[in-house]
Write a structure and sequence with these properties.
alpha/beta, 9-stranded mixed β-sheet, 12 helices, 37% helix, globular
């Protein structure tokens, strides 16, 4: 179901954000390693923040490999992209796509036909400054790796959120990103552990969250359980955070509340039987 549309008549209104005295936060979601769920997390966290009453713009910084629009179910509504904005072929207002399912949620898509050299870090900083003026939160979906795309994505970050899964290779790459952030940028980072499976942890077949925290040494923002509904929803272009009744949806909404300054406990993990996993997968 496609429910987004290009913004008509301008970008989100700047009331409360365009005065120059108060500007939104730029949160870059990164990991160093591909396949850990950065894009899915960006879509769901942006949705949860918008459902909490925040004005949110999610920005796909993975130039050449555009996926955020697909995860959000907005691909058919994309007309322009961030490279078009930077190179002056359209205005920011014309490139933003509005998601009508969550009030005040907007997407700035990436380009599929250009590569990461199309945008320089200073250009990304200028773009994010414009976005901060009209949004409470700007969520930047970083590409995998630590090269130019990564440098672009973190250039304007108010805060960096590291996404990792509980496996050795993802943790090693996350640790490398944390090291680079501390060495080069003195940038604050917090952690989201994705695809956490308590059943495997109890069987000692998955690294525990306590061990992950010990290895990485940064503050924990939240844990997202391993749940088939995330994949099913992403394939449908319908972020799971839109449905508060789903168990895994609570993880994203809890993380959003923590970003807003509320003291919300970590999600309680429950054992899910295989029949129940199957029922969730088919939407029963």
């Amino acid at each position: 179901m496609q429910t987004g549309e290009p913004v008509k008549g301008g970008a989100p209104p700047a009331d409360g954000r365009g005065s120059g005295t108060e500007r939104g936060l730029v949160l870059t979601l990164t990991s160093g390693k591909g396949g850990v769920g950065k894009t899915t997390t960006t879509a769901n966290l942006g949705t949860a923040l918008a459902m909490a009453g925040q004005r949110v713009i999610v920005l796909d910084a993975d130039i050449g490999l555009r996926n955020l629009d697909i995860i959000m179910g907005l691909e058919s509504q994309v007309v322009h992209n961030l490279v078009d904005v930077i190179e002056g072929r359209c205005t920011l207002h014309e490139a933003l796509v509005r998601d009508k399912r969550a009030k005040e949620l907007y997407l700035l898509p990436s380009s599929q036909t250009r590569d990461k050299t199309a945008v320089a870090p200073d250009q990304m900083m200028t773009l994010c400054e414009e976005l901060r003026a009209i949004a409470d939160f700007v969520l930047v979906d970083s590409p995998a790796g630590i090269e130019l795309g990564f440098q672009n994505a973190i250039a304007a970050a108010s805060e960096v959120i590291i996404i990792t899964t509980p496996d050795v290779s993802a943790l090693r790459d996350a640790d490398k990103v944390i090291y680079l952030l501390e060495r080069d940028l003195n940038t604050e980072a917090r952690l989201i552990i994705n695809r956490y499976n308590p059943r495997l942890v109890r069987r000692k077949e998955m690294i525990t969250r306590h061990d992950i925290m010990s290895i990485l040494g940064i503050d924990l923002l939240g844990i997202v359980p391993d749940d088939d509904q995330i994949t099913v929803s992403a394939n449908k272009g319908w972020p799971v955070a839109l449905d508060r009744k789903k168990y895994v949806s609570r993880a994203y909404h809890n993380i959003a509340q923590r970003l807003l300054g509320y003291n919300v406990p970590l999600i309680h993990f429950q054992e899910v039987s295989w029949p129940e996993r199957l029922r969730r997968m088919i939407g029963l």
